[in-house]
Amino acid sequence: MKKLLFLFLVLMFSCSNQNHNLIGISKIVSHPALDSLEKGIQDELNERKIKVTFDLQNANGDINTALSIAKKFKEQKVKIAVGIATPSAQTLVKELKDTSTTIVFSAVTDPVKAGLVSSLEKGEKNVTGISDMTPVETQIKLITQIKPVKKLGLIYSSHEDNAVTLAKITKDICKKLNIELIEATVTSSSEVKQATLSIVNKVDAIYVTTDNTVVSALPSLTEVTMKYKVPVISADPSSAKDTQVLAALGFDYYKMGKATGKLIIEILEGKKAENIPTRFLTDRKDLEFYINLDVAKKLNLNIPEELLDSADIIVK
Asked: At a CB cut-off of 8 Å and minimum separation 6, what does 41 contact?
């Protein structure tokens, strides 16, 4: 009997200890940028020899699945729950905010509008993270340096808060630059191809923001644009590299993952989330500029020398 009790206590301690060091990561969908971010988190903790166990979950673009993942993390009593991209972060906050779990968001464009924190200057109780607010005006000006643009196309997800926020910013900047913005909205990645077909013959170029629904369907989008010889400029270099995107300027999401990992370590070492403001990656070294000369050739476009000189990656 004493042996059985001892074994029971050992098992209880083992489970408790495992949960104490369990980090749940929920990402809304799998695509190169978010996958790189997830790997960056793991690499940072592993390189620092932080003893944790990861539970990696992918919602496959479905908000109900994201909610189920959040409930799973709640049952597991994970030490830290990481929400990669706005929808996943929102479900974690909805389910876990009043528990002992600390929620860390990453790749969230506007955490205040998303309802994750009330201010960028400080975290909430058990909630903090990193924003990927992208340099929209710089990206749109990049398009105009390559070719004259009077009409710009934008396809975005109407159910992603980050995508809606970026669409509004894009509209304001286009107005400032005297560019007509032609929009099409989608609710799932399966609609992206049809949405592209609906606007491609009306625009001079298409701009893709860090919209997870659209980015996850980039191959189908560029399949259409190449037929119509319409260039695509993306805010996500990681996902652009295996597609027919002409150019991309945006965050290196692996570096964002490493920065998220550093934030997680601070929390594991005792820092309170409420004392950590939303962080931003603001250095040029955190951005990556990608140009595909093969796509440029197919589109009969010449890339200015000054852009080639400033590119981090050139595909020939």
From this structure: 25, 82, 106, 257, 258, 260, 261, 264
Instruction: List pLDDT tens digits, range 146-160.
Output: 999 999 999 999 999
Count Cα neighbours of 267 within 13 Å in the Cβ-side half-sphere.
Answer: 32
The DSSP 8-state label assigned to residue 137 in this structure reads H
250 phi/psi in degrees, rounded to 5: 180, -170
Which is it for strands 80-84 and 205-208: parallel, antiparallel or unpaired? Answer: unpaired
DSSP sequence for 176-231? HTT-EEEEEEESSGGGHHHHHHHHGGG-SEEEE-S-HHHHTTHHHHHHHHHHTT--
- Per the structure block, which two tokens stand in for 190? 């399966």
- Asked whether 46 and 269 are in contact (CB, 8 A), the reply is no
Q: What pairs with residue 250 in β-bridges?
A: 288
Domains in the chain, please, with CATH?
2-132+253-283 (3.40.50.2300), 136-251+286-315 (3.40.50.2300)
Residue pLDDT, tens place only, 265-282? 999 999 999 999 999 998
Other CB atoms within a 10 A radius of the CB of residue 202 amount to 12
Over residues 289-304, mean pLDDT: 97
Give the torsion through C-alpha atoms of 166, 167, 170, 175, to 10 deg: -150
